[in-house]
């Protein structure tokens, strides 16, 4: 079992525990703001399950029907998570409006807030781990889950402050107002998750920093060639697809050109662990005198 799959299983377990804790906090207090916090956690559980399924699919090797692999399955998980976030926000807004029309006093506020705080601490620690491992493993599903959990932590802190203010002042309308603000925050998070995932599905280019690193690796490892040009690269889940043209002297043998290509591929794999490299070899008269100059 890969580390990404183990982490995805952990996310599902953490999501279920946090949902149970937040539901208990809402049941004790009757606060619609704490209910909105619990409703957001239902999204966390569903998203963790979707991420687990997507990561397992993405880990499958290429086959006849999917010769480039199954890496993009993770982006579908992230898009699905964004959609579920939007649905949760709509449900929270509906609950907030109902509570605004018929406000109810908050019961056992301090006990409920203490219970809810324990869930936020657990969420915050797990979100930090997901963001770190999502970047390290280049997993869009884990990174999206981590960003959403971190948003959940921020909204939970805001909810706690607002519930304290509502209890201290007796202004019951603060409770549904906080729930509405949570919904807006959730919608903002969902927009960012969907936007980032759609970029991956549309074969958006890798970041400029990654492209610059690729150029540097190619320049340092292509000794014997003339130049490299038309570099293109994209991420698909944990894999990076890299393509470029390599210009070699016209009199160079196929075997010698192949050795240069092998050396470049090995260097790119060392820097980008799951890179898929395609090199088109061209004779010297095809040189564009631009792009990557071989050192």
Automatic annotation (TrEMBL):
InterPro entries: Cation_efflux (IPR002524), Cation_efflux_CTD (IPR027470), Cation_efflux_CTD_sf (IPR036837), Cation_efflux_TM (IPR058533), Cation_efflux_TMD_sf (IPR027469), CDF_Transporter (IPR050291). The chain crosses the membrane at residues 7-29, 41-59, 79-97, 109-131, 152-171. Signal peptide: none annotated. Keywords: Cell membrane, Membrane, Transmembrane, Transmembrane helix, Transport. It is a multi-pass membrane protein. One of its GO terms (cellular component) is plasma membrane. Its main location: membrane. This is Protein p34.
């Amino acid at each position: 079992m890969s580390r990404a799959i183990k982490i995805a299983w952990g996310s599902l377990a953490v999501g279920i525990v946090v949902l149970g804790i937040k539901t208990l906090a809402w049941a004790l207090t009757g606060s619609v703001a704490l209910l909105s916090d619990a409703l957001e956690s239902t999204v966390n559980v569903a998203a963790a399950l979707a991420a687990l399924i997507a990561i397992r699919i993405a880990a499958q090797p290429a086959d006849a029907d999917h010769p480039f692999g199954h890496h993009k399955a993770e982006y579908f998980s992230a898009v699905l998570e964004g959609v579920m976030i939007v649905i949760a926000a709509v449900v929270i807004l509906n609950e907030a409006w109902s509570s605004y029309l018929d406000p109810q006093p908050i019961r056992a506020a301090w006990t409920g807030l203490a219970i809810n705080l324990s869930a936020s601490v657990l969420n915050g620690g797990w979100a930090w781990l997901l963001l770190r491992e999502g970047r390290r493993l280049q997993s869009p599903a884990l990174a999206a889950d981590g960003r959403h959990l971190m948003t959940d932590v921020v909204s939970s802190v805001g909810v706690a402050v607002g519930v304290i203010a509502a209890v201290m002042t007796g202004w019951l309308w603060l409770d549904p107002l906080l729930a509405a603000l949570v919904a807006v925050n959730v919608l903002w998070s969902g927009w960012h998750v969907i936007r980032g995932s759609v970029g991956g599905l549309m074969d958006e280019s890798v970041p400029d920093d990654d492209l610059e690193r690729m150029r540097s690796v190619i320049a340092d490892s292509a000794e014997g060639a003339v130049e490299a040009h038309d570099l293109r690269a994209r991420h698909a889940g944990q894999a990076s697809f890299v393509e470029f043209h390599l210009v070699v002297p016209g009199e160079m043998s196929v075997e010698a050109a192949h050795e240069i290509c092998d050396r470049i591929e090995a260097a790119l794999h060392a820097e980008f662990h799951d890179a898929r490299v395609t090199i088109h070899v061209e004779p010297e008269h095809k040189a564009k005198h631009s792009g990557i100059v071989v050192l």
